[in-house]
Amino acid sequence: MTKCIVAQSGGPTAVINATVAGIVKANQMNPVYDKVLGGLNGIEGVLQEKFVDLTDMSDEENLILRQTPSSALGSCRYKLNRQKTEDMDKLIRIMEKNDVETLFYVGGNDSMDTVAALSEYAAAHGITNRRFVGCPKTVDNDLMITDHCPGFASAAKFIANTALQTWYDVNVYTRQEVFILETMGRDAGWLAAASCLSEKVDVLIVPEVAFDKDKFLEVVSKKLAETNHCYIVVSEGARFANGEYLAAAEAKNDGFGHAVLGGAAKYLEGLLLSTGTTKRCKVLDLSTAQRSHATEQSLTDVTESFELGMSAHMRSADRTFTGKMVGLTRKPGIDKYDIDFFAVEAEKVANYVKNFPVAWLLDDYAGITEAAFEYFRPLIEGTPQFITKNGLPVYIKPYYLQ
Amino acid sequence: MTKCIVAQSGGPTAVINATVAGIVKANQMNPVYDKVLGGLNGIEGVLQEKFVDLTDMSDEENLILRQTPSSALGSCRYKLNRQKTEDMDKLIRIMEKNDVETLFYVGGNDSMDTVAALSEYAAAHGITNRRFVGCPKTVDNDLMITDHCPGFASAAKFIANTALQTWYDVNVYTRQEVFILETMGRDAGWLAAASCLSEKVDVLIVPEVAFDKDKFLEVVSKKLAETNHCYIVVSEGARFANGEYLAAAEAKNDGFGHAVLGGAAKYLEGLLLSTGTTKRCKVLDLSTAQRSHATEQSLTDVTESFELGMSAHMRSADRTFTGKMVGLTRKPGIDKYDIDFFAVEAEKVANYVKNFPVAWLLDDYAGITEAAFEYFRPLIEGTPQFITKNGLPVYIKPYYLQ
Question: Which of B65, B76, B172 is best to mutate for the A interface (most A CBs within 10 A)?
Fold first, then answer.
């Protein structure tokens, strides 16, 4: 009997813990591993042998874990790539020392690169009994091959609800007013586009289409002339034709070489005010609330995240299963939404970005096509029953603080 | 038989429509009025005779109206005070012309002033058959005499959930990080204080206690030294000892002589970064999302808002009932939370502000006392069952757009 480790990396989501809960639950149903260890703060903590024992988690704790947002095991932004052979060697020695056969890594692009790098390194060194399995999560929904990523739908649902509700708010006065909602989405417009589920978005700006100042001002002016109100949604990663971000003036660096953005909405507000297009403009940047707002988990999302963890665990009973990511695909040929799990080489997912399809965008920033609605709608279906106390949800005390 | 008008004023809330739904429902149970008219965009629209007929609303529409955020009848910021005798005269003539006996006005401080001014004007002119009844609503919870205001608890619940969830998010990395959540609250700290229901707030800044820069920096530094993370909540109306708002640099005017604030959190972020207290700081200003986020309605709040509308209608069957606001009081002498409705002179509520009790604040910005927790907790209890379609709540098309 050996052990497995599950660790989480990158930005949190509202359902990332459900994948961990699924791995733990699957191992209780079929104890492939003697122990399920939680690695704290991703690879960073695993390299320091910071573990908690999750093996005998009670069903109540498992349920509470599923409704707890953000990474209960802590996260990191440490990227273990092919160049860091010393770290890879250290990690494998730590796995050997602790009798750990499998590392489940729950994360996005960078985490899939870590899974690919470690499995390649192991293969190149003839190590066959240390295995690496990726479980996708990202609110950005920008991983290749998988139909969608656990975490995206709950963020999308919160954004759509917020767009709907703030649209109702901004329209109550007769005076002219523009509202600009900024969403996450460094390179892909999935989250911003999902706001259109509210059916209230007048203008949608995503990174996939170069921002044209004149066209934008024309579209907003037209809408204001018609109804005196205009509801705009913009991705943080919106950019000009030359590739420069609208938020460029406020760009910083997150240590991964990614620009940390914020301020695309502020840029648009400045543009509308300075050109006299409008005199009143409200801006809402949802910041990290959009990725952690677990009180609006999509039942579909949290269920898929849990089952994906189970599927990854079950597949790992095959001792040749390594270097893979478990993904989601829609069952073809049926009307009703349903998904299958499948495995793909992590290598094929790592370091690519799946953009929002430009074919799903209407002209003149007017929103999304019916095909996009059909893609989005089933993902946000359903609301879980939450365990609450004093009117608020009950959450797990983060394992990294226990 | 005569008619009544119900109109809404001031900033929207997540449950303001439930009061309208209660008035309509009560009139269906006991048709005191021949018709229930909705006045569009508050007094502004009533003065233009913009009405919709709500009398025969179906039960389904009534249920959907209760879950719809923001003012379905539209709102205004037009203040009808004792100086505007021409408007008051015009309003009473419009009521006479349309055979309207009672105007129910759902709003905050300014609306109660309108109710008081109109009833005084009617009394002074010997007009006994035109009556004016106030129904409180405000997310700010700053109305006198009533124990609390419909609308507050749902905003409080959304803020507490957001504080809880973003606390989970900001703590996942080992790196040092400060998070600052800014809430509404121009003059009173109720909403900011309610964030403490999350039990995660390290530093709470409200308008009721003068902001002391040195003490603040000392408290944050101490917390960072202990845990490397610090969670701060600040009211938009936080101010220095000289009365100047932290957000003063960004102050504008909303036409009522109130400062439109925004930027207290940005001020604190600048202070923390410029003094080197921390290098990483995230800011979230919930803007209008906090007052319109109806997917997190408190069941207690929406029920009380509905019943308050019913109570106001039922009391108005007494043809001497005018110039009053219907309020909420906790039933004394019982352990379990329960409320009674009562009526009070609108005059006693208008133009006063009920501050958050300083006695309920801990020293050194450390949050709120147990007495404050006891006050808040029952208000946020319960989650309504929502009518949904395609994963999102179904809302009424605003009457001002029909």
Answer: B172
Q: Is residue B373 packed enough to be buried (19+ CB in 10 Å), middle (13-18) or exposed (0-12)?
A: middle
- B140 classed as catalytic: yes
| Average pLDDT estimate for B237-245 | 94
Question: A170 and chain B: CB distance < 8 Å anywhere?
Answer: yes
State the pLDDT at residue B202: 98
Please give the C-alpha separations between residue B331 and each of A89, B81, B320, B328, B334, in angstroms, as whole numbers: 68, 34, 26, 9, 7
CB contact under 8 A, B174 and A71: no
State how far the Cα of A360 lies from the Cα of A356, in Å rounded to an integer.
Answer: 8
Which ipTM score applies to this complex?
Answer: 0.94
Question: Are the beta carbons of A381 and B398 separated by less than 8 Å?
Answer: no
Left (φ > 0), alpha (ψ -120 to 50) or beta: where does A382 sit?
Answer: left
Tokens of A227: 């109804």
Report whether A292 contacts A16 (CB < 8 A).
no
Q: What is the mean pLDDT of chain A?
A: 94
Segment A312-320 shows an average pLDDT of: 97
Could you read off the pLDDT of A339-395 as tens digits, one per residue? 999 999 999 999 899 999 999 999 999 999 999 999 999 999 999 999 999 999 999
What per-residue confidence (pLDDT) applies to B29? 97
- The Cα B34–Cα B23 span in angstroms is 13
Region of B359 please: left (phi>0), alpha (psi -120 to 50) or beta: alpha
Task: Please check the confidence at residue A75 and state whether its pLDDT lies above 70.
Answer: yes
Residues A109-166: tens digit of each pLDDT: 999 999 999 999 999 999 999 999 999 999 999 999 999 999 999 999 999 999 999 9
pLDDT band for position A1 (cuts 50, 70, 90): low
DSSP B236-299: TT-BBTTS-BTTGGG-EE-SSS-EE---HHHHHHHHHHHTTS-S-EEEEE-TTHHHH-GGG--H
Tens-digit pLDDT profile for residues B87-121: 999 999 999 999 999 999 999 999 999 999 999 99
**pLDDT exceeds cutoff 60 at B261:** no
Please name the fold of domain A3-150+297-352+381-401. Answer: Rossmann fold (3.40.50)
Count CA within 13 A, CB hemisphere, residue A253: 3
- What is the average per-residue pLDDT within B65-78? 96
What residues of chain B lie within 8 A of the CB of A395, using their CB?
Answer: 164, 168
C-alpha pair distances (Å), A45 with each of A33, A197, B363: 21, 39, 37
Residues in contact with A48: Cβ distance below 8 Å, sequence separation at least 6, in sequence order: none
Q: What is B3-150+294-352+383-401's CATH topology?
A: Rossmann fold (3.40.50)
Query: Is-same-fold flag (B3-150+294-352+383-401; B153-292)?
Result: yes
- A257 pLDDT exceeds 50? no
**Domains of chain A: which residue ranges?**
3-150+297-352+381-401, 153-292
SS3 B207: coil
User: Residues A313-345, buried b or exposed e (16+ Cβ, 10 A)?
Assistant: bbbbeeeebbbbbbbbeeeeeeeeeebebbbbb
**Distance of alpha carbon B258 from alpha carbon B182, whole angstroms:** 18
pLDDT of res. B253? 38
Coil, strand or helix: which one is A225?
helix
Number of residues in chain A: 402
Q: Look at residue B1 in the predicted model and tell me its pLDDT.
A: 66
Query: Which among A110, A40, A154 has a CA at the least distance from the CA of A401?
Result: A40
Question: Which segments of B317-360 are extended strands (E)?
Answer: 324-330, 339-345
CATH no. of B153-292:
3.40.50.460
A70: nearest CA in chain B? Answer: B169
Residue B184: partners with Cβ closer than 8 Å, 6 or more residues away? B139, B140, B155, B191, B235, B236, B286, B290, B291
Residues of A in contact with B296 (CB under 8 A): 295-296
Q: How far, in Å, CA of B192 to CA of B182, rounded?
A: 8
Tokens for A390? 């004093």
